[in-house]
Amino acid sequence: MFAPPARIEAEVFARIPEEFMVHDRNSAWARTQLHGAPAPVFLEGPSFDRDGNLWVVDIPWGRIFRIDPKGDVVLAAQYDGEPNGLKFHPDGRAFIADYRRGIMVMDPVTGRVEPYLERARLESFKGCNDLFFASNGDLYFTDQGQTGLQDPSGRLFRLRPSGQLDCVLAGIPSPNGLVLNLDETAVLLAVTRDNAIWRVPLMSDGTATKVGVYIQMSGGGGPDGIALDNAGGLAVCHVGFGATWIFSPKGEPLYRIDCPQGLYTTNCAYGGPDGRRLYIVESRSGSIVTAALPEPGRPMYSHSVASA
User: Fold this and answer.
1) What is the domain range of residue 13?
2) Assigned domain for 65 exists
3) How far apart, in whole angstroms, are the C-alpha atoms of residue 133 and residue 181?
4) Would the CA dihedral through 295, 297, 302, 304 be positive or negative?
5) Has residue 2 got a pLDDT over 80?
6) What is residue 28's three-state secondary structure?
7) Distance from C-alpha of 294 to C-alpha of 24, rounded to nearest angstrom
8) Which residue, 4, 5, 46, 272, shows the most beta carbons closer than 10 Å to its own?
9) Is residue 25 part of a domain?
10) Ramachandran angles phi, psi of 31, nearest 5°
């Protein structure tokens, strides 16, 4: 259907030091999600702050790491939870999609993590996965849990600055990473167990309509984290494939970025001095790899956001 995309080899930017690897304990999260395999670390949720530091979460051990532009790693926070995704609000706070506890908020200066939204109408979430801010301050997040083709009951939520919570879309087999398109008329949603990126057009009232497949993938475990560039192109981390794909705004595959560290390429974020470098998490090895992307399309960090 398309010409083979050009291949780019990523290089290692940083790795969680051995002193932070957990070898003497078992994790309930890892027993289920990794079928009992050891999990000394499992990174996700890369996000840049205003000072150019890269923050990542460690799901099984409830940890948040900060990585400076030179690649030096600091343990910035640890709490009783399973942080799965992280995004910064323009007021400096970090919002966390926690698999076990819902939506949390962290003060990056003190490392204090507190609950922000633990339940939906008194009901617990299945397992929050990732989140994204709209320019008006609306917070979109996915509720994935153990859903899949056997149980397509995952959900996409929107939390307004007023505190109103809306279920934008239900009946999703494993909703994962998400972004809004450039004009914020649709959510692009990684649906891992469907091995696809869905387009979720939004009505003026924020409800979904005419949901369809934007990109159909194959192999690996499916798409996980995604990131948008300022031309509307999409970076898609293909977990289990060891690659991140770069698609044009029309959905045409342009580049394949291969990871030298393993197959668990789960999440990515644009950063660097000019915003054109893609940083990709390889979760199992605790590594962050990076690659500079060619023109066209100058990648951006994220949409600007209004204060909540």
Assistant:
1) 6-292
2) yes
3) 12
4) positive
5) yes
6) helix
7) 43
8) 46
9) yes
10) -60, -35
For residue 136, which amino acid is it? N
**Rounded Cα gap, residues 237 and 130, in angstroms:** 13
pLDDT of residue 308: 34
**Pairwise CA distance, residues 42 & 266, whole Å:** 10
Burial grade of 136 (CB within 10 A; 0-12, 13-18, 19 or more): exposed
Within a domain: residue 303? no
Q: What is the Cα–Cα distance from 237 to 239, expressed in whole angstroms?
A: 6
**Nearest in space to 264 (alpha carbons), one of 282, 249, 289:** 282
CATH code for the domain in which residue 15 is found: 2.120.10.30
Give the DSSP H/E element, type plus range, for residue 114: strand 113-117
The token duo for 249 is: 């705004």
Cα gap 242→231, rounded to integer Å:
25
Residues near 183 by Cβ (< 8 Å), separated by ≥ 6? none
In a domain, residue 161? The reply is yes
Q: What is the pLDDT of residues 266-282, one digit of tens each?
A: 999 999 888 889 999 99
Strand pairing class (6-9; 253-258): parallel
Closest CA to 304 of 134, 182, 62: 134
Residue 282: what pLDDT?
Answer: 98
Q: Closest Cα partner for 304 from 208, 182, 130?
A: 182
As for how many domains the chain has, the answer is 1
The owner of tokens 């640890």 is: 78
Distance between CA 201 and CA 208 in Å, rounded? Answer: 6
pTM over 0.85: yes
How far apart, in whole angstroms, are the C-alpha atoms of residue 147 and residue 155?
A: 10
Are residues 90 and 83 in contact, defined by beta-carbon separation less than 8 angstroms? no
User: Which region holds residue 210: left if phi is over 0, alpha if psi is between -120 and 50, else beta?
Assistant: left
Structure-block tokens of residue 68: 């400076």
Mean pLDDT (the chain) is 94
